[in-house]
Design goal:
mainly beta, 31% strand, Jelly Rolls, globular, disordered C terminus, disordered N terminus, ten-stranded antiparallel sheet, six-stranded antiparallel sheet
Length: 414
């Protein structure tokens, strides 16, 4: 199993590497559970469909999704191997259906690396690495988003095996990922942007227990989920890369009510850092301040962090257009290894924290990887990983959710 980047043990946020960088081993004591690492082969659900597989609903009412072929890719991965999804038609829509041949519907945690070791009511974050093709829809600066992570949660006690959402609901986590040819780490807390059926201006709030069960949290109740590009890329084919889908526990008390759906990107060639997040929909006039340091701001405290250049971010949109972006090339990153940023609304004392491993400005994306003998200061050394075989998946049919048409969508290699 690969070592995932886990600088976020005390941060509820996101860090980004370009394709030339290696992730650090998780610091000891981090409570996490790997769902997918793509080191050996494409996973399958108990119905025999890919996990994930594509969803092609272009003929449906919503006219979404498309066709991709998936394979394990050891050439363009951050480290070891990743999942490459080559989109040939439509828009990218990767669905993770925990279904069985009998037609029953399980929980996402049933597909984790060690379901028996899953700790209930513990993991409060989900994270994954993604690299968009440069022809994908760019990140938005007007409060909108370009990606959506859709989730379904259902009652855990006496759960309905024929339903994805009995006793729960369907939610949307809007995310804003730059299409800069770099890897981005997306971190989701338990605050979705939208609940199905509600007005777009309604904020669901932070939902630690969306089914009303005090002993089971959001990620315990998670069943089906998907990651979706809201628009087709500028051209086909287009390669979407995915890696290290995990759940973990953030022990620090962060501002989950006002800061959520974080992403971050470091572009070393231009000294550029892009961080995106969502604000509460009612906070239309609340500015967020960004500060930075080169050690954990949870450890040193907000007052000891340096105000970021032009670090006061005003909401660019209103209500449901609640995306926030901090984009700069002015941070003093030379000879630094990790950049820590904190985001705090001006009407709060609590902040959320972002850790960005900094990649040397040498070589192009996917070029020679740095040595792994030691990690950033204060972090454990990087661990070498065997390179996984680039094994194509078997051809499969896209598994469509209930009430949608099933359309053929191969997952074979090319």
């Amino acid at each position: 199993m690969k070592a995932a980047l886990s600088l976020l043990t005390l941060l509820g946020a996101a860090g980004v590497l370009t394709g030339s960088a290696a992730p650090s081993r998780a610091p000891s004591g981090e409570e996490r559970m790997v769902l997918l690492d793509f080191d050996e082969a494409i996973a399958a659900n108990k119905a025999g469909d890919g996990y994930p597989t594509c969803y092609d609903g272009r003929q449906g009412a919503r006219k979404e999704g498309g066709v991709f072929e998936a394979r394990i890719d050891g050439k363009n991965a951050r480290v070891g191997s990743c999942l490459r999804m080559r989109l040939t038609k439509g828009a990218w829509y990767a669905q993770f259906n925990p279904y069985t041949k009998a037609g029953t519907r399980e929980f996402a945690r049933d597909y984790s690396k060690d379901p028996r070791q899953w700790r209930l009511n513990t993991y409060n974050r989900m994270r994954f690495w993604i690299r968009l093709p440069e022809g994908a829809s760019p990140h938005r600066v007007d409060g909108r988003s370009n990606l959506n992570v859709g989730t379904y949660v259902k009652r855990v006690a006496n759960s309905d095996p024929r339903s994805d959402e009995a006793g729960g609901n369907h939610y949307y986590h809007m995310t804003n990922v730059p299409a800069l040819g770099c890897w981005t780490l997306v971190v989701l807390n338990m605050h979705p942007d939208h609940r199905r059926g509600n007005s777009g201006a309604d904020d669901p709030g932070n939902l630690p227990h969306p089914t009303g069960e005090a002993d089971y949290n959001y990620f315990d109740a998670l069943t089906r989920f998907y990651i979706q590009d809201e628009r087709p890329p500028a051209r086909h084919p287009a390669d979407y890369l995915l890696d290290d889908v995990e759940f973990y526990r953030e022990p620090a008390e962060e501002n989950d009510e006002q800061v959520y759906s974080l992403t971050g990107t470091h572009v070393p060639a231009s000294n550029r850092v892009v961080v995106t997040w969502r604000r509460h929909k009612r906070d239309n006039d609340v500015r967020h301040e960004v500060r930075y340091a080169f050690e954990s701001i949870h450890r040193i405290g907000w007052d000891r962090a340096t105000p970021a250049p032009r670090g006061w971010v005003r909401p660019p949109g209103y209500g449901g257009y609640n995306g926030m972006v901090y984009d700069t090339t002015d941070l003093p990153l030379a000879d630094r290894e990790v950049l820590y940023l904190a985001i705090r609304p001006e009407n709060s004392k609590r902040f959320s924290h972002i850790a960005l491993p900094l990649v040397p400005a040498t070589g192009a994306e996917g070029a020679g990887r740095p040595a792994r003998a030691s990690g950033p200061r204060g972090l454990p050394p990087r661990r070498s990983r065997r390179k996984a075989r680039a094994r194509p998946a078997r051809g499969r049919t896209c598994a469509a959710p209930r009430r949608t048409a099933r359309r053929a969508c191969g997952a074979s290699g090319w």
